[in-house]
Inverse folding.
């Protein structure tokens, strides 16, 4: 694919809103409208903002969201192509830049690729972009033939005048179509009539990912480019006290030592290896500050106090859970905890920046093009019409690349060397020490039963870190972080799947100095473990079957129940298992989708888990590419199980201790379980795919482990209990 | 000056002899298909072939690779025809983000050279590359398919 569309720029004025952390600009119709003089782009006429058709019949579909492995590039193209009625074999894709989008009144809408929103939140307007283009192409052909458009139809990039049998192609009428006024509204197809969308079509970006030709951010090469290696104070909140650049200036290839900001220093050299070698040799004295006293133990102690703290934000309240617990015939209580984890995408953070007093451009892999663009504006001090961000393929994102700290750093370096492109790459060690970590929390769960073993009350107290308080404080609701309650909410895209007569879910916010971030799955990872492991504990406490116990509480949650039933049936729940084989299950809702998992495993000596098979079901409403959904399910299990077995960043002296994959392990192919996917879209809503399933693997496995051993594990990762995958 | 034979072509590079082969390939030879992932030979993203053997190029000094035949992902296809492993990768739509796949493919080519019909246990023992996207189910299926080709 083309990663740097060569589009004409035009001057424009942009409001001050664009220079802040995000862009708050009026959202125009993202198709048809606001077409500019720069319509002759991408080697052919632009029919709508989403569709360019070249004379050779190539269909260029514009993709605003970012491809980072999850398949959104292909899925979004399928949705546009479905309505466009084009020849899929002629489809190619192109990223517009955030600068171009802003210049055209955000014609491509939101660029944010996080929260499993890539498809679910843009599907309607990208489909309209395709349908609008089809209508205009048909109209152009009808005009040429001087017949009513209603007598013409389009399929496979060919337009046919039905009464006469005449045909023409998109490539032949695209220029005329681009000059037609777009229709005010278009009707979208019923998904049951889909021919391209909804099908397991091959990805569009595979070949270049097998022959070394795909360009990632680390691969960018610009004429005259220099390379930068960077070191931020390893203690979060610490600062540079001093560094002795004279010690490294004579080293081979070194061009400059740059103070990036108060906390960060970089070495610029001819090659990155020279830059890194000199940086490692650079004597730096840090002013580590107060945070140097913080450790994992001190954080855990602080969070523990929150488990019984009187003050907490309420996320879900039904009846009076505390009274139900006080009057319970039987009470069950458990405390769980979940650690810091690094995203560790295979490609470390990086960005390439070119700054001159008149212009600043950045080439980078980002999940949030507009936030990166805003970061370029802020760091360069230049107005929007003099900045742009060229999005490059991401070597993994998982939420980390939704942040723009590395973009700001690259611009800060480039600003000190005007006219010279600077490619800044973080070492793996820098990436591990300066993540935006999966937040740390603990949870105390208390369940109450009456004398007949009915669950009468449930209190889930979460203590720990808020992501929004650190990342997007403006989105706090009177101090409360609603994202904390993912999957435990009364309703919405992450609703709890149980009806309990007296329920209280609340959060004692405790924000340590380690910066948190959105980590694939965000807060469903630990919340699903807390809730779904505890549901098994409750069922066991009253001697009930884990599935039947859940079902009794799920009659008002048919979609949750649907996926749970699907995995229970597939795994053979209730039927005898082979000798030594134990089963576990879990379900949850997040990012608009309903998900469930069941597992069969056996355990040797309480320490060695052999996973025989996983079954996972998802109901995402609509399934745009079932084969890619299956890959996201299995992939999310690898990410989630890596977290469960290995994922932990510990804090000592205020800094993260794990610096590379030798101490921060990740699942290998030998540990990869068999994963059977059940993709069961029930229609009527659009749920996410990349994240929701990640959270059900761990609780299903933990519940089966308990059934096998009688032991309940409540702190993670499992390596701390010497438990491993056989 | 060090002479390197990369993908059948000689390159003279002016680098310190202890420079990791990975960075010489990427920065001096200009072949960026070989990726940096960890720098400590843990993840395998930088896997290349040296005299036909899979090697993690971040942990190999360039001077030790001089005089040997180095093959990178860019040298795997012959006259534009994909290697059978690359073809199996395309058929199975293996890559997600794709960043680890150069190294994964290079490791698999060596495995198939040594064991043309590998068992699952052979695969488990030989392929230890990290893939954070989690493409392992497709990787395994594609290996078995390539073994049949």
């Amino acid at each position: 694919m083309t990663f740097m569309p060569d589009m004409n720029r035009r001057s424009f004025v942009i409001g001050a809103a664009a220079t802040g952390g995000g862009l708050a600009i009026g959202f125009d119709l993202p198709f048809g409208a606001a077409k500019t003089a720069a319509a002759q782009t991408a080697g052919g006429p632009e029919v709508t903002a989403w569709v360019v058709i070249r004379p050779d019949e190539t269909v260029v579909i514009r993709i605003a969201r970012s491809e980072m492995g999850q398949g959104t590039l292909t899925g979004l193209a399928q949705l546009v192509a479905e309505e466009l009625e084009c020849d899929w074999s002629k489809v190619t894709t192109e990223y517009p830049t955030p600068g171009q989008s802003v210049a055209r009144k955000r014609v491509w809408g939101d660029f944010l690729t996080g929260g499993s929103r890539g498809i679910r939140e843009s599907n309607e307007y990208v489909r309209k972009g395709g349908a609008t283009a089809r209508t205009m192409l048909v109209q152009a052909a009808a005009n040429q033939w001087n017949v009513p458009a209603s007598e013409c139809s389009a399929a496979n990039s060919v337009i046919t005048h039905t009464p006469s049998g005449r045909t023409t192609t998109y490539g032949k009428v695209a220029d005329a179509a681009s000059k037609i006024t777009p229709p005010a509204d278009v009707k979208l197809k019923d998904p049951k009539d889909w021919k391209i969308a909804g099908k397991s079509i091959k990805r569009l970006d595979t070949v270049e990912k097998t022959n070394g030709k795909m360009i990632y951010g680390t691969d960018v090469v610009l004429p005259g480019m220099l390379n930068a290696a960077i070191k931020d104070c390893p203690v979060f909140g610490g600062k540079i006290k001093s560094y002795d650049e004279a010690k490294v200036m004579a080293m081979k290839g070194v061009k400059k030592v740059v103070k990036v900001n108060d906390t960060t220093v970089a070495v610029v050299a001819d090659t990155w290896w020279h830059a890194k070698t000199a940086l490692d040799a650079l004597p730096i004295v840090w002013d580590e500050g107060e945070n140097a006293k913080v450790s994992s133990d001190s954080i855990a102690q602080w969070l523990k106090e929150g488990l019984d703290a009187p003050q907490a934000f309420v996320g879900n309240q039904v009846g009076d859970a505390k009274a139900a617990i006080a009057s319970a015939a039987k009470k069950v209580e458990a405390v769980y905890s979940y650690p810091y984890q690094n995203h560790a995408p295979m490609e470390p953070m990086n960005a390439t920046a070119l700054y001159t007093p008149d212009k600043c451009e950045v080439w980078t892999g980002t999940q949030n093009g507009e936030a990166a663009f805003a970061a370029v504006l802020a760091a360069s001090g230049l107005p929007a019409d003099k900045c742009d961000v060229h999005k490059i393929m991401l070597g993994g994102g998982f939420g980390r690349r939704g942040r723009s700290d590395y973009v700001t750093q690259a611009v800060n370096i480039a600003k000190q060397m005007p006219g010279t492109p600077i490619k800044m790459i973080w070492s793996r060690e820098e990436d591990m020490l300066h993540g935006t970590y999966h937040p740390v929390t603990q949870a105390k769960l208390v369940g109450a039963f009456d004398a007949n073993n009915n669950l009468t009350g449930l209190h889930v107290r979460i203590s720990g870190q808020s992501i929004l308080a650190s990342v997007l404080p403006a989105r706090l609701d009177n101090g409360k972080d609603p994202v904390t309650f993912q999957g435990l909410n009364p309703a919405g895209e992450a609703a709890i799947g149980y009806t309990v007569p007296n329920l209280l879910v609340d959060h004692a916010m405790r924000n340590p100095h380690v910066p948190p971030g959105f980590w694939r799955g965000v807060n469903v990872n630990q919340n699903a473990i807390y809730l779904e492991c505890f549901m098994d504990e409750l069922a066991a406490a009253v001697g009930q079957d884990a599935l039947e116990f859940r079902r009794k509480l799920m009659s008002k949650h048919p979609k949750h129940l649907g996926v749970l039933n699907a995995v229970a049936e597939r795994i053979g729940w209730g039927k005898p298992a082979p000798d030594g084989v134990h089963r576990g299950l879990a379900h949850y809702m997040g990012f608009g989708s309903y998900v469930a998992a069941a597992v069969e495993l056996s355990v040797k000596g309480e320490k060695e888990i052999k996973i025989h098979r996983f079954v996972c079901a998802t109901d995402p409403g609509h399934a745009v590419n079932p084969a890619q959904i299956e890959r996201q399910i299995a992939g999310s299990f690898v990410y989630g199980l890596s977290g469960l077995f290995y994922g932990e960043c510990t804090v000592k002296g205020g800094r993260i201790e794990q610096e590379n994959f030798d101490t921060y392990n990740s699942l290998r192919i030998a540990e990869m379980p068999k994963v059977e996917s059940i993709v069961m879209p029930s229609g009527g809503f659009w749920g996410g795919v990349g994240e929701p399933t990640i959270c059900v693997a761990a609780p299903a496995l933990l519940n089966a482990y308990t059934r096998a051993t009688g032991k309940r594990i409540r702190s993670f990762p499992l390596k701390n209990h010497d438990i491993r995958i056989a | 000056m060090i002479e390197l034979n990369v993908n059948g072509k000689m390159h003279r590079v002016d680098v310190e002899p202890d420079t990791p082969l990975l960075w010489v390939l990427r920065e001096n030879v200009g072949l960026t298909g070989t990726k940096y992932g960890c720098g400590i030979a843990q993840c395998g993203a930088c896997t290349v072939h040296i005299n036909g053997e899979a090697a993690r190029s971040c942990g190999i000094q360039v001077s030790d690779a001089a005089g040997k035949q180095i093959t990178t992902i860019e040298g795997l296809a012959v006259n534009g025809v994909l290697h059978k492993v690359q073809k199996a990768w395309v058929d199975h739509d293996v890559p997600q983000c794709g960043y680890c796949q150069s190294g994964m493919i290079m490791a698999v080519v060596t495995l198939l050279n040594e064991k043309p019909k590998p068992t699952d246990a052979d695969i488990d023992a030989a392929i230890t590359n990290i893939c954070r996207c989690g493409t392992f189910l497709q990787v395994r299926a594609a290996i078995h398919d390539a073994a049949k080709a």
Observations:
- Residues 123-145 of chain A form the longest helix (23 residues).
- Chain A is about 25% helix and 25% strand.
